[in-house]
C-alpha cells in the first residue's frame, strides 16, 4: 500500500471504529510489530489490578471560548475549561475512580481531548488522540473514567495541536489518605506563559515558527535571538510572551494567598507553560523540596527552583510576618509572573520585584534523590532505547531519532517494550536547545537513585538516562513538553508488544 492510500485507510478506520481499529491496522503495515491495543484485554487486566476504593468522583469539564480576566483590566479571548484559567481544581483521593465528562464546545470544528498528565492510568483514558482514542469532536462529549493511583500533584490539559498554550488546563491533586507530611495549609500554584488573545493565537505562533529561522522571525510574538540561560545550557525558548501568569493573573493584579505567620504551607507548583521554564522563589523564605512530579524526594532546602514545562514541585515553607512576593522568573527571558503571600500588614511589592532568593541556592532534579519507599530496586535493564533529540530552529524540524511524528500514522516507528521489562531510555540531546521530556503512563527514575519523574529537563548536547518498569500496558506518548516542539514532531509512541 502506498503512503497516501494507507493514510486514508487509517483515517477511515479511526472514524469508523476508533483506536482499537487503528492498532490493528498499524500492526498489519509491515515492519511495525503488533502492539497492545489501548482498549484491549491487557489494559483491562491492568486496570483490574489497581487498588480502587470504589468511590466514584463525577465531574464535568467544558472546553469553550471564554473572555478571561487576567487582572488589572486586562482581558483575553481564549479557550478555557468552564470559563476560567486555570480551570477549577480537581481533587480526589488516591484510589478514587475519576469520572470526568469532557464537553467540547470549541469553535470551528476544533477537536480536543483530556490528558491526565503524570497519572499512571489505563491506556484508553490517557487522552492522546489518535493513539489512545479518536479525538473528541466539536459539539460532542467523552467521559474519562479511570482509577487514580499514586498520590501527588498533577494536571490535566488537551493533547491536540498547541491547545496546551491556550487557557485549557486545570490542576489535579490526588490526595494521600495516609498523608505523611504535616502542614497547616496548601496552596496550588499554576504557572503559565501567556500570548493567546493578546498578540496572537498559539496556532499563529506555530505557523510562524514552522517557517523556520531562515524565513526570518520578525513578528512580535516570536523570541528574538538572545533568550539565553546558563541553567538551561543556552537557548532558553522560542516564543516571546507578553505576560506570565500565576494562577491566571498578571503581576500587576496578583493572586493573594492569605495565612498566619508561622503557618507551614505546602505549595504545589505546576508549570503549565508552552515554551517557558520558570525559576521560582518566595521572597524572604527558603523552601523545602518534598516532591517532584507527584513522587517524594529526600527533603532539600533551597532558595529557588527551576521548573520546566510539565514538571511539578511540592515544597514546604514556614510563613514569615508581612507581605511576600512569589516570583516566577521566565528563565532566560527576563520577564516574570508574580503572586503574593500576605500574613500581616504591609504594602504589596512592585510587580517588577526580583527577590534575592532567585539568585540563591537552586537545586535541579539531577541533585535530588528519591525516598527509599519509591526508589526502584537496582536491576540490569532488559532493554535500552537510545532516544536522540534532534532538529533545530532553522527548519523547525524537532524530532526523535530524526523522525518527526506523523499524526496520521503515529505508531509507524514505535519504541518497543515488553510487559515486565526494566527499560532504560537514554535521552541523547543532539540539538542546541533544552527539552523537557515527558513519558505518559509511567514515572521513571533519573539515573541510579535520582528522583522519580515523568518529565525531565535534558540539557543541550547532554545525555540523561532514565529507567522504569514496564508495568502499564498500552501505547504511550513520549515527547518534548514544549508545545511547539511536540507539534513540530518531537514525539514518539512507546508501545508494549502484544
Ligand atoms: Cu523540545
TrEMBL record:
Xref: Pfam families: Cu-oxidase, Cu-oxidase_2, Cu-oxidase_3
Residues spanning the membrane: none
Signal peptide (from-to): 1-23
Plastocyanin-like domain sequence ranges: 72-178, 243-323, 382-494
Recorded superkingdom: Bacteria
Entry-linked Gene3D superfamilies: Cupredoxins - blue copper proteins
MF-aspect GO terms: copper ion binding; oxidoreductase activity
Keywords in alphabetical order: Copper, Metal-binding, Oxidoreductase, Signal
PANTHER family: FI03373P-RELATED, MULTI-COPPER OXIDASE
Protein's name according to its UniProt entry: Copper oxidase
Naturally occurring in which organism (per UniProt): Streptomyces caeruleatus
Amino acid at each position: 500500500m502506498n503512503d497516501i492510500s494507507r493514510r486514508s485507510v487509517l483515517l477511515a478506520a479511526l472514524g469508523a471504529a476508533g483506536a482499537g481499529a487503528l492498532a490493528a491496522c498499524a500492526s498489519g503495515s509491515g515492519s511495525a510489530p503488533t502492539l497492545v491495543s489501548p482498549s484491549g484485554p491487557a489494559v483491562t487486566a491492568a486496570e483490574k489490578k489497581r487498588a480502587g476504593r470504589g468511590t466514584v468522583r463525577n465531574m464535568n469539564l467544558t472546553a469553550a471560548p471564554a473572555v478571561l480576566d487576567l487582572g488589572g483590566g486586562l482581558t483575553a479571548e481564549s479557550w478555557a475549561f468552564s470559563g476560567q484559567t486555570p480551570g477549577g481544581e480537581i481533587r480526589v483521593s488516591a484510589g478514587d475512580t475519576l469520572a470526568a465528562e469532557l464537553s467540547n464546545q470549541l469553535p470551528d470544528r476544533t477537536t480536543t481531548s483530556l490528558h491526565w498528565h503524570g497519572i499512571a492510568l489505563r491506556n484508553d483514558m490517557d487522552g492522546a488522540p489518535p493513539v489512545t482514542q479518536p479525538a473528541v469532536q466539536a459539539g460532542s462529549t467523552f467521559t474519562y473514567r479511570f482509577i487514580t493511583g499514586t498520590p501527588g500533584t498533577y494536571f490535566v490539559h488537551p493533547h491536540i495541536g498547541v491547545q496546551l498554550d491556550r487557557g485549557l488546563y486545570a490542576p489535579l491533586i490526588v490526595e494521600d489518605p495516609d498523608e505523611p507530611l504535616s502542614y497547616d495549609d496548601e496552596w496550588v500554584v499554576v504557572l503559565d506563559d501567556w500570548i493567546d488573545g493578546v498578540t496572537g493565537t498559539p496556532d499563529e505562533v506555530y505557523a510562524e515558527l514552522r517557517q523556520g529561522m531562515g524565513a526570518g522571525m520578525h513578528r512580535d510574538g516570536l523570541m528574538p535571538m538572545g533568550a539565553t540561560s546558563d541553567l538551561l545550557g543556552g537557548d532558553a525558548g522560542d516564543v516571546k510572551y507578553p505576560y506570565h501568569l500565576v494562577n491566571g493573573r498578571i503581576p500587576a493584579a496578583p493572586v493573594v494567598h492569605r495565612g498566619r505567620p508561622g503557618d507551614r504551607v505546602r505549595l504545589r507548583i505546576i508549570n503549565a507553560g508552552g515554551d517557558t521554564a520558570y525559576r521560582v522563589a518566595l521572597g524572604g523564605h527558603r523552601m523545602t523540596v518534598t516532591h517532584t512530579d507527584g513522587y517524594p524526594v529526600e527533603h532539600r532546602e533551597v532558595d529557588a527552583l527551576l521548573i520546566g514545562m510539565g514538571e511539578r514541585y511540592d515544597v514546604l515553607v514556614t510563613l514569615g510576618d508581612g507581605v511576600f512576593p512569589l516570583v516566577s522568573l521566565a528563565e532566560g527571558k527576563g520577564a516574570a509572573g508574580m503572586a503574593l503571600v500576605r500574613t500581616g500588614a504591609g504594602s504589596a511589592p512592585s510587580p517588577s520585584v526580583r527577590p534575592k532568593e532567585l539568585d540563591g541556592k537552586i537545586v535541579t532534579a539531577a541533585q535530588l534523590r528519591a525516598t527509599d519507599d519509591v526508589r526502584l530496586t537496582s536491576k540490569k535493564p532488559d532493554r535500552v532505547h537510545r532516544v536522540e533529540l534532534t532538529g533545530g530552529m532553522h527548519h523547525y524540524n524537532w524530532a526523535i531519532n530524526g523522525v518527526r511524528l506523523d499524526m496520521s500514522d503515529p505508531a509507524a516507528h514505535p519504541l518497543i517494550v515488553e510487559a515486565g521489562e526494566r527499560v532504560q531510555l537514554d535521552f541523547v540531546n543532539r540539538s542546541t536547545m533544552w527539552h523537557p521530556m515527558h513519558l505518559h503512563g509511567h514515572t521513571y527514575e533519573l539515573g541510579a537513585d535520582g528522583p522519580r519523574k515523568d518529565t525531565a529537563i535534558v540539557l543541550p548536547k547532554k545525555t540523561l538516562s532514565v529507567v522504569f518498569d514496564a508495568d502499564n500496558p498500552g501505547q504511550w506518548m513520549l515527547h518534548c513538553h514544549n508545545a511547539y516542539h511536540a507539534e513540530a514532531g518531537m514525539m514518539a509512541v512507546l508501545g508494549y508488544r502484544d
